[in-house]
Amino acid sequence: MAATQSPLIIALDYPDLASATALADALDPARCRVKIGKELFTRVGPQAIEAMHRRGFEVFLDLKFHDIPNTVAGAVEAAADQGVWMVNVHAAGGRRMMEASAERLRQRGLSTRLIAVTVLTSMADDELQEIGVAGDAMSQVERLARLTQQSGLDGVVCSARESERLRAICGEGFLKVTPGIRPATAATGDQRRVMTPEAAMAAGSTHLVIGRAVTQAAEPMVALAEIERALDAG
Ligand SMILES: O=c1ccn([C@@H]2O[C@H](COP(=O)(O)O)[C@@H](O)[C@H]2O)c(=O)[nH]1
């Protein structure tokens, strides 16, 4: 598997392997990574990972584990044993859960990147209040990013709106993987904290997760080429 320098991660949010491989066959593993999330993995299982590895892609397994420390550490280890490039947990699972997961990878000498979801990009301040979070999204992301870094993980999932702040407090090397990426003309859909690809990179995102703006486009490869052009110009 060739490591790519591209920040792009294409979210393969499909209900079957045929649809996912059809898009993957049009993509170039030298120009992006792919993300396998809950829908595809629940329907297809590890075969989806194997199919992407056979095509030369590095895979982000986005299952957002959130459970007791022993259970999550085991799940993270299982993901890493399948050779994925990146896997994630929910930072809200807490310090001991994150430390146990990071420690498990270290003990086994596994190089899979481990990151934690701070606040879902579909949520804004009003929804956070509803679930009992007193502050705004920015302060909650900041709190969980600090905890994630102290727990020994490689980075976080956040929105690009928080990337600049996290670059300042957690440093350049701490990964800022940002979904909620929308070219100016794309529909926002269920996402609330969005940013354009070029603005996200300028703000300090290290990786951009792009799903429907490409996968649901009339011509996915044209949509992707436009995003790449915007990034090159930026
Ligand atoms: O906070 C988060 C964490 C994960 N995601 C995932 O990223 C993609 C985004 O897809 P779009 O179609 O570009 O909106 C999707 O797989 C989510 O599960 C997220 O959006 N926000």
In a few lines, what is going on in this structure?
Pathway: Pyrimidine metabolism; UMP biosynthesis via de novo pathway; UMP from orotate: step 2/2. The protein is of the alpha/beta class.
Keywords, please?
single chain, 234 residues, alpha/beta, eight-stranded parallel β-barrel, 11 helices, binds ligand LLZGTKA7, decarboxylase, pyrimidine biosynthesis, lyase
Structural class: alpha/beta
- Compressed to H and E, one letter per element, the order equals EHEHHEHEHEHHEHEHEHH
Q: Into which percent range does the helicity of residues fall?
A: 40-55%
The strand order across the widest sheet is 1-2-3-4-5-6-7-8
How would you describe the overall organization of this protein?
The protein is α/β, with parallel strands linked by helices. 45% of the residues lie in helices and 15% in strands. The protein contains eleven helices and eight strands. The chain has helices spanning 17-26, 38-44, 46-54, 69-81, 95-108, 125-130, 137-150, 163-170, 197-203, 212-215, 220-233, and strands spanning 8-11, 33-36, 59-65, 86-90, 113-117, 155-157, 175-178, 207-210. Strands 1-2-3-4-5-6-7-8 form an eight-stranded parallel beta barrel, surrounded by seven helices. Helix 4 runs parallel beside helix 5 (95-108). The longest helix has 14 residues, at 95-108. The protein starts with 7 loop residues before the first strand and ends with a helix. The structure holds the ligand O=c1ccn([C@@H]2O[C@H](COP(=O)(O)O)[C@@H](O)[C@H]2O)c(=O)[nH]1. Pfam families: OMPdecase. Keywords: Decarboxylase, Lyase, Pyrimidine biosynthesis. Pathway: Pyrimidine metabolism; UMP biosynthesis via de novo pathway; UMP from orotate: step 2/2. It catalyses: orotidine 5'-phosphate + H(+) = UMP + CO2. Residues 7-227 form the Orotidine 5'-phosphate decarboxylase domain.
